[in-house]
Here is the input.
Amino acid sequence: MTLRSPLRKVRGLGSAGEGAGHWWAQRMTAVALIPLLLWFVGSLCVMVGSDYVVVREWVATPIVSILLVLLTIAAFHHAQLGLQVVIEDYVHIKWLKLSSIALIKFAAISLAVATIFSVVKIAIQ
Amino acid sequence: MASPNRPLSPHLQIYKPQLTSVLSIMHRGTGIVLAIGTLFLVWWLVALASGEDVFHTAQEFWGSWIGRLLLLGWSYALFYHLANGLRHLFWDAGKGFELHAAYRNGWIVVTASVVMTLAAWLWGYASMGSL
Here is the structure.
């Protein structure tokens, strides 16, 4: 018999301590990435072999800049959530697990910021 | 306390590979490949923002045979992860779980990933005028 009330169980949010938040974010970013990536790969197929000026003009188009920033956010968020699960599954030394996950999150944020900065720089120049 | 008699995950070295298990491992593998591939996407956009010379160096790399080989791997990983990710979303909705369905949609994913990769490369070479 358990002395925990149903409310306590809900507040505890399960063994991960964060409920379905990670799982849900992984799905939402996945759904967002479907149209964004089809658009991005299609655009690359059209632009293959284009020179510097053409590619810059493409990135500087407002709708393209916006979609590229959205793609960057969704892709890096999705990637770091996925890599976190891989680490949680295979790395069992606690300090190594925590520091690898932290490192991946820092790297994802830094790289996303560098990419967004580049897009914005091109867009406003 | 965890029960000592709990079922274990299938041991990869003695467990006969099946379409379902191979595709599952490939989903994780392609996910890791794509995470690494994203670094090259960052390089491409940062190079574009840095100036013409830097961009040309990046473009030259992507045009080389090693660059094209990496792009081929990246594009296959992308289309595979996309198609199988869609399969996962259907599973999340509770659809396509039966054994025959899991095999059928598994083969659909394999076919779709190859067809989409070929289509993208044909499209790319066509826009370069190389076809």
Remarks:
- Chain A touches chain B at residues 27, 30-31, 33-34, 37-38, 41-42, 44-49, 52, 55-56, 59, 68, 75-76, 79, 82-83, 86, 111, 114-115, 117-119, 121-122 (CB under 8 Å).
- The mean pLDDT of chain A is 90.
- Residues 10 and 19 of chain A are 9 Å apart (CA to CA).
- Chain A has one domain: 21-124.
